[in-house]
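Hey, I was hoping to borrow your eyes for a little while. I've been puzzling over a protein and I'd love to understand its fold better. The fold is given in discrete form, as structure tokens running alongside the sequence. I'd be grateful if you could look everything over and explain what you see. No rush at all, and the record is pasted right below.
>
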Amino acid sequence: MIEKDILFAPLGELRNLFRRRKLSPVHLTEAYLERIHELDPKLRAFVTVMSERALREAQQAEKEITAGLDRGPLHGIPYAAKDLFAARGAPTTWGARPYASQTFDHDAAVIRRLHDAGAILIGKSAMTELA
């Protein structure tokens, strides 16, 4: 279990903790997912939480970081994307009911680039209709 304060730490501090093996991307991702589970019923900030994908990406990032691979400053860092962006396997609703079941078989370019940088997609944030 990690301290909740770490959820508000700057990226540089998180990266330093990863490098020193004081924090793992898996534990950080799990902590963010727990926080979402705890607060989102009230806040309704997420339209889709992507726990399975997030944990899979976190495990991959942890293996890479442990092996000495450094993809850059976002490697191992969880993030949420606006529901405007396609993410393979998750609904992309654009905040509108007619698109509630819309899915794409690919990731939007920004999602793909963040993935390539080692960032961990934890979910899609709610938004107003059609941006």
User: Anything to note?
Assistant: Residues 25-43 form the longest helix (19 residues). The chain is about 40% helix and 10% strand. The mean pLDDT is 96.
